[in-house]
Amino acid sequence: MRDLDRAIGFYTEGLGLRLQGREGNVARLGAWNSELLVLVGAPGAAKPRGTTGLYHFALLVPSRRDLARSLRHLIARRVSLSGMSDHSVSESLYLSDPDGNGIEIYRDRPREEWPIVDGQLRMTTDPLDVKSLLAENGPMDAPQAGLPSGTRMGHVHLHVAHLADSERFYSEILGFELRQRFGRTALFLAAGGYHHHIGLNTWAGVGAPPPPPGALGLRHFEVLLPDTGTVDGILKRLRAAGVPVTEAPGGGEAADPSGNAVRLLAQPQSK
What we know:
- By secondary structure, this protein is α+β, with helices and mostly antiparallel strands.
- 20% of the residues lie in helices and 34% in strands.
- It has helices at 4-15, 64-76, 130-134, 163-173, 228-240; strands at residues 18-23, 26-31, 34-40, 53-60, 83-86, 90-96, 102-108, 116-117, 120-121, 126-127, 152-159, 177-182, 186-190, 198-201, 221-225, 246-248, 251-255, 261-266.
- The longest helix is centred in the N-terminal third of the chain and has 13 residues, at 64-76.
- It is globular.
- The model has no long low-confidence stretch (mean pLDDT 95).
C-alpha cells in the first residue's frame, strides 16, 4: 500500500473490517476474530496496468441481510461502488481500495437455487435488484458498524497470461474442479462443489507479463487444505511438474504460470 494509514482507514471505517494488529509497515485485518487480509506498506510503489495479478478478492458475508447492511454502510460512508451484479448463484457489490485493488462483497444463494443447465453450472452477470436487497433491512436497522462474524474469504479472482496453462496448474496439479467457462476469456474453479474459489481471466491481455518487483498488488494468497498430508501431496505434484516450491510456515508456496503466488497451508485443527 502506498499509504498504509490511509489504507487502514479505508478498510476499517469504509469497508468494515477490524484492525487486528499492526507491526511497523504490516497491518492485519479481519472480521471479528478471523484474519482475512494482510496489508504491507510500500511508499512510492506503483500499480502497473496490463499485468497479471489480482483482479479482486471476494469477502463472503453469511446472509442477504448482511449484504444489505453492508451496502447501507458503504452508502453511509460515501464509498464509491464500481458495480453491483446478480450472478444467479450469488449477489455482489464491487469496489476498489485507494490503491486500485479490486474488492467484492457478496452473499451466496442456497445451493439448491443455483442454475444447472445440461448438468453444468450456469453463473450469470445480471443487474442487482438493489431495491429488493435494501428491503432486507428493517426500518430500525442501523448501517452495519462492521462486517459480521462469519465473514470469510470466499474466492480470489486473478488476471493470468494464458487460460490453458493456468487451468492445468489449478486443476491438474492443485486439484480444483473446473466449474464454468466464460467465453474464451475467463474460467472458474472450485473444490467441494462450490461455484468458484478461483477465478481466472485474460482481461489484462493475453500474454500479459507479471508486475515488476515491488509493484503494488497481490503478494500471495492462501489456500487452506484439510490436513498436512493433503498439503504434502500437492507439493509433491508441484515438484514433479517442475514447479519451484519454497517453504512457508505450515506448508509451501509456488507461483502459477502467470507469476501469481499461492501459499498452501493445512487448515488449523479445532480443539
